[in-house]
Amino acid sequence: MRQSKKEILKKHGYFLTGEESGVKLCHWVSEKLISGRSCYKEDFYGIECHRCLQMSPAIDVCNHTCLFCWRYQDYESHEKEIVFDEPEDIVERSIQAQKALVSGFRGDDRCSEKMWKEAREPNQVAISLAGEPALYPDLGELIREYKKRRMTVFLVTNGTRPDVIENLDTLPTQLYVTLAAPNEDIYKRLCVPKVGTTWDDITETLDIFPTLDTRTVIRHTLVKGWNIGWEDEYVDLIRRADPDLVEAKGYVFVGDSRRRMTLENMPSHDTVKAFGRLEAELLGMELLDEKRDSRVVLLGHRTFTLDHA
Question: Under CATH, what is the fold of the domain 3-300?
Protein backbone atom coordinates (compact mmCIF):
# COMPACT_ATOMS: atom_id res chain seq x y z
CA MET A 1 0.00 0.00 0.00
CA ARG A 2 1.40 3.39 -0.89
CA GLN A 3 2.41 5.67 1.99
CA SER A 4 -0.06 8.42 1.09
CA LYS A 5 -2.99 6.04 1.53
CA LYS A 6 -1.58 4.74 4.81
CA GLU A 7 -1.56 8.29 6.12
CA ILE A 8 -5.17 8.84 5.03
CA LEU A 9 -6.30 5.62 6.69
CA LYS A 10 -4.53 6.54 9.92
CA LYS A 11 -6.37 9.88 9.95
CA HIS A 12 -9.61 7.91 9.53
CA GLY A 13 -8.86 5.90 12.67
CA TYR A 14 -7.33 2.77 11.17
CA PHE A 15 -4.58 0.95 13.04
CA LEU A 16 -2.45 -0.66 10.34
CA THR A 17 -1.09 -4.10 11.21
CA GLY A 18 1.03 -4.61 8.09
CA GLU A 19 1.25 -3.65 4.44
CA GLU A 20 -2.34 -4.60 3.58
CA SER A 21 -4.05 -5.37 6.90
CA GLY A 22 -5.56 -3.27 9.64
CA VAL A 23 -8.05 -2.75 12.45
CA LYS A 24 -10.55 0.02 13.13
CA LEU A 25 -12.53 0.36 16.32
CA CYS A 26 -16.21 -0.08 15.62
CA HIS A 27 -18.49 2.73 16.77
CA TRP A 28 -20.45 0.18 18.78
CA VAL A 29 -17.43 -0.80 20.88
CA SER A 30 -17.33 2.70 22.34
CA GLU A 31 -21.12 2.78 22.66
CA LYS A 32 -21.09 -0.43 24.69
CA LEU A 33 -18.20 0.70 26.91
CA ILE A 34 -19.61 4.16 27.59
CA SER A 35 -23.39 3.84 27.50
CA GLY A 36 -24.08 0.10 27.54
CA ARG A 37 -25.89 0.24 24.18
CA SER A 38 -25.23 -2.80 22.01
CA CYS A 39 -25.08 -3.30 18.26
CA TYR A 40 -27.54 -5.37 16.30
CA LYS A 41 -25.02 -8.21 15.96
CA GLU A 42 -25.07 -8.62 19.73
CA ASP A 43 -28.86 -8.58 19.75
CA PHE A 44 -29.23 -10.92 16.78
CA TYR A 45 -26.30 -13.30 17.19
CA GLY A 46 -25.25 -13.11 20.83
CA ILE A 47 -21.73 -11.75 20.39
CA GLU A 48 -20.37 -9.24 22.94
CA CYS A 49 -19.85 -6.16 20.82
CA HIS A 50 -17.29 -4.55 23.16
CA ARG A 51 -15.16 -7.67 22.59
CA CYS A 52 -15.54 -7.60 18.80
CA LEU A 53 -12.47 -6.88 16.68
CA GLN A 54 -13.21 -5.34 13.26
CA MET A 55 -10.44 -5.96 10.75
CA SER A 56 -9.44 -6.71 7.19
CA PRO A 57 -6.47 -8.62 5.72
CA ALA A 58 -6.95 -6.77 2.41
CA ILE A 59 -7.72 -3.13 3.19
CA ASP A 60 -6.45 -1.81 -0.14
CA VAL A 61 -7.74 -4.64 -2.32
CA CYS A 62 -11.27 -4.79 -3.73
CA ASN A 63 -12.88 -5.72 -7.03
CA HIS A 64 -15.96 -3.54 -6.40
CA THR A 65 -16.32 0.21 -6.08
CA CYS A 66 -19.80 0.21 -4.56
CA LEU A 67 -21.50 3.59 -4.57
CA PHE A 68 -22.88 2.99 -1.06
CA CYS A 69 -19.54 1.96 0.50
CA TRP A 70 -18.54 4.17 3.43
CA ARG A 71 -14.88 3.16 3.22
CA TYR A 72 -12.16 5.26 1.63
CA GLN A 73 -11.79 3.35 -1.65
CA ASP A 74 -9.06 4.28 -4.17
CA TYR A 75 -8.03 0.60 -4.33
CA GLU A 76 -4.74 1.05 -6.16
CA SER A 77 -3.32 -2.26 -4.90
CA HIS A 78 -5.85 -4.18 -6.99
CA GLU A 79 -3.95 -3.04 -10.06
CA LYS A 80 -0.45 -4.10 -9.00
CA GLU A 81 1.52 -6.86 -7.33
CA ILE A 82 0.45 -7.07 -3.71
CA VAL A 83 2.55 -7.93 -0.69
CA PHE A 84 0.11 -9.57 1.72
CA ASP A 85 0.80 -10.04 5.42
CA GLU A 86 1.18 -13.46 7.04
CA PRO A 87 -1.92 -14.81 8.83
CA GLU A 88 -0.31 -15.37 12.23
CA ASP A 89 1.27 -11.92 12.15
CA ILE A 90 -2.06 -10.33 11.26
CA VAL A 91 -3.85 -12.08 14.12
CA GLU A 92 -1.28 -11.20 16.79
CA ARG A 93 -0.94 -7.60 15.61
CA SER A 94 -4.71 -7.11 15.30
CA ILE A 95 -5.29 -8.23 18.89
CA GLN A 96 -2.54 -5.90 20.11
CA ALA A 97 -4.05 -3.10 18.01
CA GLN A 98 -7.45 -3.61 19.62
CA LYS A 99 -5.86 -3.37 23.06
CA ALA A 100 -4.22 -0.10 22.08
CA LEU A 101 -7.43 1.30 20.57
CA VAL A 102 -9.49 0.68 23.73
CA SER A 103 -6.77 1.78 26.15
CA GLY A 104 -8.15 5.31 26.55
CA PHE A 105 -11.50 4.13 27.87
CA ARG A 106 -9.96 3.12 31.19
CA GLY A 107 -9.85 6.72 32.36
CA ASP A 108 -13.53 7.35 31.59
CA ASP A 109 -15.77 7.12 34.64
CA ARG A 110 -18.61 5.82 32.45
CA CYS A 111 -16.63 2.69 31.57
CA SER A 112 -16.37 -0.06 34.17
CA GLU A 113 -13.00 -1.65 34.86
CA LYS A 114 -14.50 -5.09 34.22
CA MET A 115 -15.84 -4.18 30.79
CA TRP A 116 -12.62 -2.41 29.84
CA LYS A 117 -10.59 -5.50 30.68
CA GLU A 118 -12.97 -7.63 28.61
CA ALA A 119 -12.59 -5.25 25.65
CA ARG A 120 -8.83 -5.80 25.80
CA GLU A 121 -9.41 -9.52 25.27
CA PRO A 122 -11.50 -9.75 22.07
CA ASN A 123 -13.33 -13.04 21.56
CA GLN A 124 -15.04 -12.20 18.26
CA VAL A 125 -13.59 -10.98 14.97
CA ALA A 126 -15.48 -9.44 12.06
CA ILE A 127 -13.43 -9.85 8.88
CA SER A 128 -15.26 -7.09 7.09
CA LEU A 129 -13.62 -3.73 7.64
CA ALA A 130 -12.57 -2.72 4.13
CA GLY A 131 -11.57 -4.28 0.83
CA GLU A 132 -12.64 -7.79 -0.17
CA PRO A 133 -11.36 -10.47 2.27
CA ALA A 134 -11.73 -13.29 -0.28
CA LEU A 135 -8.93 -11.68 -2.31
CA TYR A 136 -6.55 -12.42 0.57
CA PRO A 137 -4.74 -15.63 -0.45
CA ASP A 138 -4.48 -17.21 3.03
CA LEU A 139 -8.05 -16.59 4.19
CA GLY A 140 -8.64 -20.11 5.52
CA GLU A 141 -5.44 -20.00 7.54
CA LEU A 142 -6.35 -16.56 8.90
CA ILE A 143 -9.72 -17.90 10.11
CA ARG A 144 -7.98 -20.91 11.64
CA GLU A 145 -5.52 -18.70 13.54
CA TYR A 146 -8.36 -16.66 15.06
CA LYS A 147 -10.25 -19.82 15.99
CA LYS A 148 -7.12 -21.22 17.65
CA ARG A 149 -7.44 -18.25 20.03
CA ARG A 150 -11.00 -19.30 20.86
CA MET A 151 -12.53 -16.44 18.88
CA THR A 152 -15.73 -16.62 16.87
CA VAL A 153 -15.28 -15.42 13.30
CA PHE A 154 -17.78 -13.54 11.12
CA LEU A 155 -16.67 -13.25 7.49
CA VAL A 156 -18.35 -10.80 5.10
CA THR A 157 -17.67 -11.28 1.39
CA ASN A 158 -19.11 -9.75 -1.76
CA GLY A 159 -19.43 -13.24 -3.24
CA THR A 160 -17.21 -12.66 -6.26
CA ARG A 161 -14.74 -15.45 -5.45
CA PRO A 162 -16.75 -18.69 -5.37
CA ASP A 163 -13.53 -20.67 -5.78
CA VAL A 164 -12.16 -19.26 -2.52
CA ILE A 165 -15.39 -19.85 -0.60
CA GLU A 166 -15.77 -23.40 -1.90
CA ASN A 167 -12.19 -24.31 -0.97
CA LEU A 168 -11.88 -22.73 2.48
CA ASP A 169 -10.18 -25.34 4.64
CA THR A 170 -11.48 -23.61 7.78
CA LEU A 171 -14.94 -22.05 7.69
CA PRO A 172 -15.95 -19.02 9.74
CA THR A 173 -18.53 -19.22 12.52
CA GLN A 174 -20.82 -17.17 10.31
CA LEU A 175 -20.50 -16.45 6.60
CA TYR A 176 -22.20 -13.43 5.09
CA VAL A 177 -22.57 -12.82 1.38
CA THR A 178 -23.66 -9.32 0.49
CA LEU A 179 -26.43 -9.38 -2.10
CA ALA A 180 -26.83 -5.70 -2.89
CA ALA A 181 -28.56 -6.09 -6.25
CA PRO A 182 -31.46 -8.22 -7.51
CA ASN A 183 -30.11 -8.49 -11.06
CA GLU A 184 -27.06 -7.91 -13.22
CA ASP A 185 -28.08 -4.48 -14.48
CA ILE A 186 -28.44 -2.95 -11.01
CA TYR A 187 -25.32 -4.81 -9.87
CA LYS A 188 -23.19 -3.17 -12.55
CA ARG A 189 -24.52 0.31 -11.82
CA LEU A 190 -24.55 0.14 -8.00
CA CYS A 191 -21.60 -2.12 -7.15
CA VAL A 192 -19.48 -0.97 -10.12
CA PRO A 193 -17.42 -4.17 -10.50
CA LYS A 194 -13.91 -3.96 -11.88
CA VAL A 195 -12.83 -5.70 -15.07
CA GLY A 196 -12.97 -9.48 -14.75
CA THR A 197 -15.55 -9.49 -11.97
CA THR A 198 -18.98 -10.74 -13.03
CA TRP A 199 -22.53 -11.24 -11.79
CA ASP A 200 -22.08 -14.95 -12.55
CA ASP A 201 -19.39 -15.12 -9.84
CA ILE A 202 -21.96 -14.06 -7.25
CA THR A 203 -24.65 -16.45 -8.42
CA GLU A 204 -22.10 -19.28 -8.35
CA THR A 205 -21.30 -18.42 -4.73
CA LEU A 206 -25.01 -18.52 -3.93
CA ASP A 207 -25.18 -22.02 -5.42
CA ILE A 208 -22.29 -23.11 -3.18
CA PHE A 209 -23.94 -21.82 -0.01
CA PRO A 210 -26.07 -24.92 0.74
CA THR A 211 -22.95 -27.13 0.79
CA LEU A 212 -21.18 -25.15 3.53
CA ASP A 213 -21.18 -26.54 7.06
CA THR A 214 -21.48 -23.24 8.88
CA ARG A 215 -24.10 -20.59 9.61
CA THR A 216 -24.90 -18.72 6.40
CA VAL A 217 -26.45 -15.28 6.00
CA ILE A 218 -27.52 -13.33 2.93
CA ARG A 219 -27.06 -9.64 3.61
CA HIS A 220 -28.80 -6.83 1.75
CA THR A 221 -27.62 -3.23 1.83
CA LEU A 222 -30.77 -1.38 0.83
CA VAL A 223 -30.35 1.93 -0.97
CA LYS A 224 -33.42 4.04 -1.60
CA GLY A 225 -33.88 4.76 -5.29
CA TRP A 226 -31.53 1.98 -6.29
CA ASN A 227 -32.26 -1.57 -5.16
CA ILE A 228 -35.55 -1.68 -3.25
CA GLY A 229 -38.68 -3.03 -4.92
CA TRP A 230 -37.35 -6.16 -6.61
CA GLU A 231 -38.27 -8.59 -3.84
CA ASP A 232 -39.34 -11.30 -6.29
CA GLU A 233 -35.94 -11.30 -7.97
CA TYR A 234 -34.08 -11.28 -4.64
CA VAL A 235 -36.18 -14.22 -3.49
CA ASP A 236 -35.26 -16.29 -6.56
CA LEU A 237 -31.58 -15.74 -5.76
CA ILE A 238 -31.99 -16.43 -2.04
CA ARG A 239 -33.75 -19.71 -2.72
CA ARG A 240 -30.67 -20.85 -4.63
CA ALA A 241 -28.50 -20.08 -1.60
CA ASP A 242 -30.88 -21.56 0.99
CA PRO A 243 -29.28 -19.52 3.80
CA ASP A 244 -29.98 -19.95 7.49
CA LEU A 245 -30.79 -16.26 7.82
CA VAL A 246 -31.36 -13.12 5.77
CA GLU A 247 -30.34 -9.70 7.04
CA ALA A 248 -31.70 -6.55 5.41
CA LYS A 249 -30.01 -3.32 6.45
CA GLY A 250 -30.58 0.21 5.25
CA TYR A 251 -27.78 2.24 3.71
CA VAL A 252 -26.46 5.00 5.99
CA PHE A 253 -25.18 8.32 4.64
CA VAL A 254 -21.73 8.25 6.26
CA GLY A 255 -18.05 8.18 5.35
CA ASP A 256 -16.84 8.22 1.78
CA SER A 257 -20.28 7.30 0.42
CA ARG A 258 -21.31 10.93 0.95
CA ARG A 259 -19.34 11.78 -2.19
CA ARG A 260 -21.61 9.52 -4.25
CA MET A 261 -24.94 9.35 -2.43
CA THR A 262 -27.34 11.77 -0.74
CA LEU A 263 -29.45 11.71 2.41
CA GLU A 264 -32.38 10.82 0.18
CA ASN A 265 -30.79 7.43 -0.49
CA MET A 266 -31.20 6.42 3.17
CA PRO A 267 -34.33 4.29 3.60
CA SER A 268 -36.29 4.61 6.82
CA HIS A 269 -36.50 1.69 9.19
CA ASP A 270 -40.15 1.31 8.23
CA THR A 271 -39.13 0.93 4.58
CA VAL A 272 -36.51 -1.68 5.49
CA LYS A 273 -39.03 -3.52 7.66
CA ALA A 274 -41.66 -3.51 4.91
CA PHE A 275 -39.08 -4.92 2.49
CA GLY A 276 -38.15 -7.59 5.03
CA ARG A 277 -41.75 -8.57 5.74
CA LEU A 278 -42.55 -9.03 2.06
CA GLU A 279 -39.36 -10.96 1.39
CA ALA A 280 -39.97 -13.16 4.43
CA GLU A 281 -43.50 -13.90 3.25
CA LEU A 282 -42.27 -14.88 -0.20
CA LEU A 283 -39.51 -17.08 1.28
CA GLY A 284 -41.74 -18.74 3.86
CA MET A 285 -39.65 -17.14 6.61
CA GLU A 286 -40.54 -14.84 9.48
CA LEU A 287 -39.19 -11.53 10.70
CA LEU A 288 -37.24 -12.79 13.71
CA ASP A 289 -35.82 -9.53 15.04
CA GLU A 290 -35.19 -5.88 14.26
CA LYS A 291 -33.01 -3.01 15.43
CA ARG A 292 -34.63 0.32 14.65
CA ASP A 293 -31.62 2.56 15.34
CA SER A 294 -29.54 0.46 12.92
CA ARG A 295 -32.35 0.17 10.31
CA VAL A 296 -31.94 -3.59 10.10
CA VAL A 297 -34.19 -6.65 10.25
CA LEU A 298 -33.41 -10.36 10.55
CA LEU A 299 -35.36 -13.01 8.64
CA GLY A 300 -35.38 -16.74 9.21
CA HIS A 301 -37.37 -19.75 10.34
CA ARG A 302 -38.64 -19.95 13.91
CA THR A 303 -37.39 -23.51 14.03
CA PHE A 304 -33.80 -22.39 13.41
CA THR A 305 -31.69 -22.56 16.55
CA LEU A 306 -29.11 -19.81 16.79
CA ASP A 307 -25.94 -21.14 18.38
CA HIS A 308 -24.26 -18.12 19.95
CA ALA A 309 -21.03 -20.08 20.52
Answer: TIM Barrel (3.20.20)
- Read off the pLDDT of residues 26-69 as tens digits, 9 standing for 90 and up: 999 999 999 999 999 999 999 999 999 999 999 989 999 999 99
Q: In the chain, helix, strand, coil percent, each to 5?
A: 45, 15, 40
Rounded to an integer, what distance in angstroms lies between the CA atom of residue 288 and that of residue 309? 19
pTM assigned to the model: 0.92
CA distance 116 to 31: 12
| 93 and 17 Cβ atoms separated by less than 8 Å | yes
- Strand bridging mode 124-127 / 52-56: parallel
DSSP for 47-62, please give it.
Answer: --GGGEEEEES-TT--
Amino acid identity at 24:
K
277-309, pLDDT tens digit by residue?
999 999 999 999 999 999 999 999 977 666 644
Residue 120 near residue 102 (C-beta atoms within 8 A): yes
Greatest alpha-carbon span in the chain: 52
Tally: H helices and E strands in the chain:
11, 10
Q: What is the DSSP code string of 175-192?
A: EEEE---SSHHHHHHHT-
298 Cα distance to chain centroid: 15
Q: In the 8-state DSSP scheme, what is residue 248?
A: E
CA distance 159 to 163: 10
Amino acid identity of 244? D
**How far is the C-alpha of 217 from the C-alpha of 245, rounded, in Å?**
5
| Four-CA torsion 155, 133, 27, 47, nearest 10 degrees | 20
Question: What single-letter amino acid sits at 57?
Answer: P
Q: Which helix (H) or strand (E) holds 286?
A: strand 286-291
